[in-house]
Specification:
It is a single chain. The protein is globular, with a radius of gyration of 22 Å. The chain is mostly helical. The chain contains eleven helices and no strands. The two termini are 33 Å apart. It has one domain (56-261): Orthogonal Bundle (MetI-like fold).
Length: 270
């Protein structure tokens, strides 16, 4: 029994090392003065971060990605609130099929979704731009938002809404004053996960962005030039730090939501 336990522990350690070692190496090479990504390290420098920020194409790609990620996360979360509310509170014909159809982009290969959207948009005469990427990312992010928000709505006590109705509140008033504050941690979690997915998404942006660069497509285009690799490492370090920050914010609101609902603080984010 002890040998099996040691084997599982070694397997878990190797798995975590394989998973997180590349992320841990990012800041090492981002602050390395050498242009070749190899050991031994040559010295400490912050020039790559300065070079990264001084690149106008990179700033444009970052600006586009932030606009797309914020817009897609807000739209996906708003639509997710409606879908999650309907699926957890009401019964209607074809409910299972409709919800399954909405959640389909979560399991479909993204390249199939991207190609289908490209054919449809070009067939309708829509010019490829940031807007088309926002629409595509909203389609991809919405199932994840619905999954999070459905859990938040399902955990609500319906008697709270019924008590608000008995006290003379309208349905909108009860939703605004009772339901919305209680599911707010789920809404924030949906916004954060949708923002992260959109910021990181490459395939749909590659197909639908047209001539507008996004951060993933810019990084992909720069990998062909060895001299640009250290700047990409610096950019990766910034993105990892941003992801950790967003994860921490999401975990804070998850714990706050559990405390508000009177539950136990178990499990991790999402």
């Amino acid at each position: 029994m002890s040998g099996r336990s040691n084997g599982l522990r070694s397997y878990a350690l190797l798995y975590l090392l394989f998973l997180y070692a590349p992320i841990l190496l990012l800041p090492l090479f981002a602050f390395n003065s050498g242009t070749i990504i190899a050991f031994p390290l040559q010295g400490f420098t912050t020039d790559w971060f300065t070079q990264m920020w001084g690149n106008p194409t990179l700033r444009r790609a970052l600006s586009n990605s932030l606009i797309i990620a914020v817009s897609a996360s807000v739209m996906a979360t708003c639509l997710g609130v409606f879908a999650a509310r309907a699926s957890t509170r009401f019964t209607f014909p074809g409910k299972g099929g409709i919800m399954g159809f909405i959640m389909l982009p979560m399991v479909l290969p993204e390249i199939i979704v991207a190609m289908s959207l490209l054919v449809v948009l070009l067939g309708l005469g829509v010019e490829l731009s940031i807007l088309t990427v926002i629409l595509g990312h909203t389609l991809i992010c919405m199932p994840y938002g619905i999954a999070i928000l459905s859990t938040a709505f399902s955990s609500l006590d319906r008697s709270l809404e019924e008590a608000a109705y008995d006290l003379g509140e309208t349905k909108w008033g009860a939703f605004r004053l009772i339901t919305l504050p209680l599911v707010m941690p789920g809404i924030i979690s949906s916004l954060l996960i949708s923002f992260t997915i959109s910021l990181d998404e490459f395939i749909i942006a590659f197909f639908l962005a047209g001539t507008e660069p996004t951060l993933p497509t810019y990084i992909f285009s720069q990998l062909r030039f060895p001299k640009q690799i250290p700047s990409i490492m610096a950019l990766g370090t910034v993105l990892v730090a941003l992801s950790i920050l967003l994860l921490g914010i999401g975990e804070y609101f998850r714990r706050r939501g559990i405390a508000r609902m009177g539950g136990k603080n178990g499990g991790g984010f999402l």
